[in-house]
Amino acid sequence: MFFENQRLNSDIEKVEENLRTNVTSKNQLLVQAIADTVGAGGKRLRPAMVIVSSYFGKIRQDKLVQLASAVELLHTATLIHDDVLDYSPYRRNRETVYKKYGTDMAIYCGDFLYTKALLMLADIVPANQLTIAAKAVKTICEGEVDQYRDKYVMNLSVPSYLKRISRKTAVLFAASCALGALCAKCNHSTTNSLSKLGFYYGVMFQMIDDYRDYKSGDSEWGKPVYNDLSKGILTLPGIYACKNNKEIYEKVENYWRKEEKSNEELHNIISQICSSGGMEYTESYIQRYRQKAFREIEKLPKSEARDILADLINKLHI
User: Mind telling me which SUPFAM superfamilies this protein's record contains (predicted)?
Assistant: First the structure.
């Protein structure tokens, strides 16, 4: 497992079992497509954040497993829809629902998982706190629209990029921590610090993902490299390079204009971005958010849970 703490690993195993046995439907095609996706695995970081945040309070084991499972289903639903938008054939080194079953089925599966997750949450989360999950999904959708709107935009600013990844990725990590803490009846100060920590962790996570997209041969996360730039998406290394190097700016702009794009040209642009200072610039931003996350950890009660969170942050590296 990804986690070194035995208690957390045990709880994650229970979530895995719950996902395998309780995400069901009378429609067998839907069941098969969902099983392929949920069974693809992953690091289960979002349910882990739910679980560890709950350790600062008290919650029944069965409710905790359901809560963490629901958050993972929300995340999985966003991935299925994301693969349709990106025409992605593979994720986590497996065929996506989009590739294996087609666009229509992928949309149905994503919608089914959204509703399944919200039904699970409704059984656990008090009505006045259910809006946390609903707002997170709404914000993720807005982040995806931001990314769609920003495709092939050359003069993208760093604040616009940060806003996009905050919506697209960080908000669900923040919601995971907040839901875990609230359902475990943590006090306001602890819940607030956990939510902020989750948000900063999510920003780091996306920046590292974007950084890795520029690194040739880095397929640890089961995604093709150079995926973003080839599809008109400018992330932090490219934003820095295009802003500070006119030659790179013009090369990216010309590459995007071409109907026939060559891998050789793409690799050349990537190489120039990597040597332009864009990677170091991104590393400095990752470190900035790492420090923000650790400042929130210092506000939490000293405990095994706090140590687990510190370990999770330290494990998140380039």
Answer: Terpenoid synthases
